[in-house]
Design goal:
Shape: elongated
Strand content: 5-15%
Helix content: 55-70%
Distance between the termini: 45 Å
């Protein structure tokens, strides 16, 4: 029964995240993954909450840096940013 509730919550979170920015989407995904891992490892709700907090924060920070541009370095060591291929 717990698995059914978890899957329902993940489906709702995924539906709500479709209109969000990349950072917000990765935060939702990170929080969901963190909650699943934290709950599985500790076996209690506080572990799931801590995992969601850590995963959400990490996902948001990763999403903020993923703006569709890549960093390149030329032979002289100069770094420039351009659109990813």
């Amino acid at each position: 029964m717990k698995i059914g509730y978890t899957l329902t919550a993940l489906a709702i979170a995924g539906t709500l995240a479709t209109g969000c920015t990349t950072a917000e989407q990765t935060a939702v995904g990170g929080a969901a993954a963190g909650a699943l891992i934290g709950g599985a490892v500790t076996g209690n709700t506080s572990g799931a909450v801590a995992g969601a907090l850590i995963g959400g924060t990490a996902g948001y920070l990763l999403g903020k840096t993923a703006d569709g541009r890549c960093r390149y370095r030329d032979n002289s060591g100069n770094v420039y940013i351009a659109r990813c291929p």
